[in-house]
Design brief:
222 residues, mainly alpha, 2 domains, 70% helix, 0% strand, metalloaminopeptidase activity, zinc ion binding, ERAP1-like_C_dom, peptide binding
């Protein structure tokens, strides 16, 4: 279903593109980044496009950039080395902020579980600004089932460090962390884990109620 649309939309900008064409391409490539990770040919193409980007950052359209990085990291050969290059690119002060954020959104899609853990730890370092540090967490969470479990387990273990990082910032940043590390969690068990973390740390908010409603709705639909 996705492949025919990918063929139609392509990955490159066209002079004839309309705003709707770009919106469609962004939506389709975003779906491909989640559901086509096992497509070796597509992953190889995305690795090539990522390497081209690292040589010339203007070579990759901004509406597909994060999706290309995700597929390259999740399904490409030598994804570990590509991961290191993208981390280095994100840490480069000369990298435009929009490109840096796209890397944050994708970096957790790397195959290696050890590198996924490094992404989570990296998010707490000065290399990632506090205003952005929940983006890498979300990328690990959304990368796979294992990534989802890893992100929440990590948050439970490292919550004090996370909270300390935002102690002088807006409380919405802490809410963003909770949302990022529990995103797409539609089970009562997960809702209860979120609730316990909030209770143990004297947090208040509506995230748990939203999570429970989604879990109940999902169970009813099954």
């Amino acid at each position: 279903m996705i492949e025919p649309l990918l063929t139609k939309c392509g990955w490159r900008l066209k002079n004839t593109d309309t705003a709707k064409d770009r919106q469609l391409r962004a939506a389709v490539t975003s779906l491909a980044a989640i559901h086509c990770q096992s497509d070796a040919g597509l992953a190889a193409s995305c690795v090539e496009m990522t390497l081209d980007y690292l040589d010339d950052h203007t070579s990759l359209a901004d509406d597909v950039r994060a999706s290309v990085f995700k597929l390259a990291l999740a399904g490409g050969e030598s994804s570990d080395e590509l991961w290191r290059q993208l981390v280095s690119k994100a840490e480069d002060p000369a990298t435009p902020q929009t490109e840096r954020v796209d890397i944050y959104h994708a970096i957790g899609f790397v195959r290696s579980k050890a590198l996924k853990r490094k992404v989570l730890q990296w998010s707490l370092t000065p290399s990632v600004k506090t205003q952005d540090f929940f983006f890498p967490m979300a990328s690990v969470r959304l990368s796979s089932k294992d990534g989802a479990d890893l992100a929440w387990d990590w948050l439970e273990t490292n919550f004090s460090a996370v909270r300390s990082r935002v102690s002088t910032a807006s409380s919405t940043l802490l809410a963003s962390v909770l949302i990022s590390c529990s995103r797409n969690a539609y089970t009562v068990e997960m809702a209860e884990r979120v609730e316990k973390l909030m209770a143990d740390n004297n947090l208040k908010g509506v995230i748990i109620h939203s999570c429970k409603r989604k879990a109940i709705w999902f169970i009813c639909m099954k």
